[in-house]
């Protein structure tokens, strides 16, 4: 029984270090994890540059193994220290954690370099872990709330933009035709979205006067319409900020019930009742 | 008389299925219609890709006939079940519904492929039907209201942008001239709008130092001016949201039923009834 | 004395037609003027297209003479009917009106086609007259007020953007150098503004990894910073709209002095005093 | 003692002229400084244009020496007239002021033209001095406050955009590959940011249908997401403006002097003093 308890304590300590953020050890773990993730991302990036890969291939390979082993140890510790390992395994972060360790071990079995690159890139999904660590920065919650509140509206808007793009893309396909680069309706829709979102690569551009006139209309539509999601987020965010402020400051007078609008009020503005006891 | 009544019932049932959205049959009809429209749009798109059309021409042709016949049946049912068929025929959706069936039948008479593509694309107009189905999503109404409220303002703004574009386009035509790609004033205006809306294809770009200086001014104007429609929509949307919230949270007078808009109201603003008991 | 009075009446009538907008004749004059201006603008535009000019040169020449003579008559009538002709001559619109008639008469003396095009384009300045006619659309006043209120702020902002562009442009010139298209510091600043305002022609683009990294930073700065003028206009416009609404609805109770927030209020919400006499 | 006092007076006068802005001499000094800085910036710019440099090399060299000597005198005067010279030397503007004089003197020792251009450009840092002079325009303070308030939120947002760019860039690298211009993951991330911020150079653009589809998604994300920083700044700015207006219009308590923030307050919120006589 004593060993069992000891075992539990040992697990609890690991749990506190890995999942906790308030103890010094927990904070240190988070910072080390952040550095290892960033390091692994930089390695994946640099490896993709041919000149770097040729020169430092050995170093990259060793780095990858070190990172993979560190991630594997972390994954095992997470599994051991948690009460319901199954829940973790099938959670969003559980799958990402697994996917960021498995690919390197697969290099023993698969030798085609094409597949390896794709698998290696899976480790990049770990950037979401960083986001999770950043979550503790209060501001991001506020941002997330504002985005969540305007989610459906932005979805409706994007859907509308897509329908307009399908129509305008088809018209441009009929006007310009395959000889001017508008080779098919999907390709033409691609061009319409490139124009409507004001990206404007210039790989395809209208050649006929009529096509250029329609393009001008599309741009002006895009110009006027970009205002819509901005207006939505802006209004939602303002409303959210105001609500929070109101609920922070909202006290009411115990004598007459009038709202107290200023946090530094000492007397009720309605009945003159003393709010703060001395 | 009995058959006449039966006939009426039969029509009423169809009407409920096609126009209604609250019965299970009505919902099912809407979902099936949505799928058929999306399917027909995808077919039109894929057909326009030469490599796809060569390989699956037969399949596309059959698909088109199936979709056309389904749309024809729907059109006839709509005509039968409605009380004033003439009103439907000349309504916006009536014309679209007709235009999305007719083209395929015309292939018997017209054999020029150029015309066929254009006609076939008419079926894409049916995407508006999807919009009509989406209408029931509450958020889109809110969006539509905000847009409607800022419509005239955005129109005035777009008109102003056009006048500025005409002036700046002419100046650029005089500065750069046909040798640097600014072949005519309309073409130069096209370039100005491409720049002002920050699309920037790069198919034409100023070559002279003076032209580049003016282009820089145009960009900064565009940068500062894009704020205007955004600001309008943002303010209108915020005002609209606030009004709705106010009326949601409102109390109503127990005497005359008028909404009470101010939380600190003590008397009804409509009948003078005392709202707060002392 | 009778002839003098008659003369005055005759002038007053012309004045009413030209400057007035409330009489049917005044409205008709404005509409005709609008059409003639638009027609003259379209002629200037089409003339600049070589293929059109070759074919319809004679027609364009006659059209120009007709428009010029109409504008000259209008100019003389304005001079006659106004009390202080000197004030009109040196006013903004007076100069534009003169500049839109003079160029065509100059074709008798100057025969170089290069100069002619530039002079002819002066007639485009008349589009401002259209703006003046549109002024009566109430919305544009509201827009103009919002823009005027945020003028200084946007100026400060644009000034800051320019300074940042000078610095970043110089850095890019040092990093990329003339071999990659950044031929001089002014040209490099031009590129920076093209990037910062998200126009992105692509006529010059960074080639070195360091240059691309700095370009990425510039883009993200531009992305975050475009928010500033939008935010300003949005807030100013909202404040302006609100103020107007407040002043429209702002009545106060003659009994207790409480503000009346609803235009349809019949009783004071504070003391129950009857606001509207029957 | 008398000379010491005289010396002090002499220093105080210089201090007033250089650091002060309210005396005519102080204003004149600021304006002269502004002109010299702008002149030196224009010289650095024009010098970088090869054709200008060849023709006016001698003039540019003399101009640079004049500006450098003027800046050196200013630097020495600032050192003499201030009480704590060490504090000034190591301040932000102290370092910039030094860096804008040193490079020209270094031309005696270093003769490589490559280094000279880079050093010469250091003088451009003096544009910040202009900003400091502009500081007195009240509006820029308001802007700066709005930006400072939304700083952390925009940082969180930019951080999120970067993570999304890393993921999407990697996906595009895997989809398009080096054959279509996506030569490495960092290069692919560069492309993603170019697209997401709607800059769209077009130096690299997706060639495969799948790549174009993903590009379309990135653009629409960028389109919807650009709303976020705008919304934040807009809301913050509006809140800031409102707070300022409220405090501007506020009454103050005749008893304790505290501001009265609510127009319908009857008692002071600080001392309970009755504000409204009955």
TrEMBL record, chains A, B, C, D:
<keyword id="KW-0630">Potassium</keyword>
<dbReference type="Pfam" id="PF00520">
    <property type="entry name" value="Ion_trans"/>
</dbReference>
<dbReference type="GO" id="GO:0005249">
    <property type="term" value="F:voltage-gated potassium channel activity"/>
</dbReference>
<dbReference type="Pfam" id="PF13248">
    <property type="entry name" value="Zn_ribbon_3"/>
</dbReference>
<keyword id="KW-0633">Potassium transport</keyword>
<feature type="transmembrane region" description="Helical">
    <location>
        <begin position="89"/>
        <end position="111"/>
    </location>
</feature>
<dbReference type="InterPro" id="IPR005821">
    <property type="entry name" value="Ion_trans_dom"/>
</dbReference>
<protein>
    <submittedName>
        <fullName>Ion transporter</fullName>
    </submittedName>
</protein>
<dbReference type="GO" id="GO:0001508">
    <property type="term" value="P:action potential"/>
</dbReference>
<feature type="transmembrane region" description="Helical">
    <location>
        <begin position="154"/>
        <end position="175"/>
    </location>
</feature>
<feature type="domain" description="Putative zinc-ribbon">
    <location>
        <begin position="251"/>
        <end position="275"/>
    </location>
</feature>
<dbReference type="InterPro" id="IPR027359">
    <property type="entry name" value="Volt_channel_dom_sf"/>
</dbReference>
<keyword id="KW-0813">Transport</keyword>
<keyword id="KW-0812">Transmembrane</keyword>
<feature type="domain" description="Ion transport">
    <location>
        <begin position="27"/>
        <end position="244"/>
    </location>
</feature>
<dbReference type="GO" id="GO:0008076">
    <property type="term" value="C:voltage-gated potassium channel complex"/>
</dbReference>
<keyword id="KW-0472">Membrane</keyword>
<keyword id="KW-0407">Ion channel</keyword>
<keyword id="KW-0851">Voltage-gated channel</keyword>
<dbReference type="InterPro" id="IPR028325">
    <property type="entry name" value="VG_K_chnl"/>
</dbReference>
<feature type="transmembrane region" description="Helical">
    <location>
        <begin position="58"/>
        <end position="77"/>
    </location>
</feature>
<keyword id="KW-0406">Ion transport</keyword>
<feature type="transmembrane region" description="Helical">
    <location>
        <begin position="213"/>
        <end position="235"/>
    </location>
</feature>
<keyword id="KW-0631">Potassium channel</keyword>
<dbReference type="InterPro" id="IPR059113">
    <property type="entry name" value="Znf_ribbon"/>
</dbReference>
<feature type="transmembrane region" description="Helical">
    <location>
        <begin position="28"/>
        <end position="46"/>
    </location>
</feature>
<keyword id="KW-1133">Transmembrane helix</keyword>
